[in-house]
């Protein structure tokens, strides 16, 4: 006997985007938070994006890197991972250390490459990303209750996620940069 499982796919109800801010970030919601859903968190640069072959960001300022990243192609495997989570009913949040003034260009890049997202958060630059992302994770824990994982290229952000009891998936694409730019990570908040 053939057994077929029918699974309902989740399509979030779109709302008028709502801006919000925390101590260390600013952001926007595109779907209302839902405590019955798991949220998966994705970083942007060197996680959802893929640097072109032979591109070196060592020695660049962050602004120079973010300017170049406007034209970076997506990492297809990670975009498909985000799409899969979303199709199966999870919410997707974007948590990036990009500065807050790059909110619209980040939204444009995500939409251009069909990356689903229900919330987006950008750093206000007051703390290193390993601390700012902990603050973002805490907001998502308050909004959703269950945070599935943080997908990120920074070992310091993965460390910070562990301090918030969130599983980290270390996307190892930028180790040389992080070796040259270490961050001190300590538990933030709660």
Q: What helical percentage do the residues reach?
A: 25-40%
- Beta fraction: 15-25%
Uncertain residue ranges: 4-11
Overall structural domain count: 1
Descriptive account of the structure:
With 190 residues, the chain is an alpha/beta fold. The chain has a single domain, classed as 3-Layer(aba) Sandwich (Rossmann fold). 35% of the residues lie in helices and 21% in strands. The protein contains seven helices and seven strands; from the N terminus they run βββαααβαβαβαβα. It has helices at residues 44-48, 62-69, 76-87, 103-112, 129-144, 155-163, 175-180; strands at 18-21, 25-29, 38-42, 91-99, 119-123, 146-152, 167-170. Strands 1-2-5-4-3-6-7 form a seven-stranded mixed beta sheet, with helices on both faces. The N and C termini lie far apart (52 Å).
Task: Explain briefly what this protein structure is.
With 190 residues, the chain is of the alpha/beta class. The protein has helices spanning 44-48, 62-69, 76-87, 103-112, 129-144, 155-163, 175-180; strands at 18-21, 25-29, 38-42, 91-99, 119-123, 146-152, 167-170.
């Amino acid at each position: 006997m053939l057994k077929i499982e029918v699974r309902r796919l989740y399509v979030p109800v779109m709302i008028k985007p709502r801006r919000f801010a925390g101590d260390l970030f600013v952001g926007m919601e595109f779907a209302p938070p839902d405590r019955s859903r798991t949220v998966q968190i994705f970083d942007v640069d060197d996680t959802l994006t893929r640097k072109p072959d032979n591109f070196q960001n060592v020695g660049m300022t962050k602004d120079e890197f973010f300017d170049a990243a406007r034209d970076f192609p997506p990492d297809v495997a990670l975009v498909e991972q985000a799409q899969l989570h979303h199709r199966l009913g999870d919410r997707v949040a974007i948590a990036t250390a990009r500065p807050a003034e790059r909110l619209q260009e980040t939204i444009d890049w995500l939409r251009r490459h069909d990356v689903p997202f229900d919330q987006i958060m950008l750093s206000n630059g007051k703390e290193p990303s390993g601390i700012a992302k902990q603050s973002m994770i805490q907001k998502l824990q308050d909004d959703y209750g269950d945070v599935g994982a943080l997908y990120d290229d920074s070992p310091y952000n993965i460390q910070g996620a562990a301090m918030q009891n969130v599983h980290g998936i270390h996307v190892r694409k930028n180790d040389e940069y992080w070796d040259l730019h270490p961050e001190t990570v300590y538990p933030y908040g709660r």
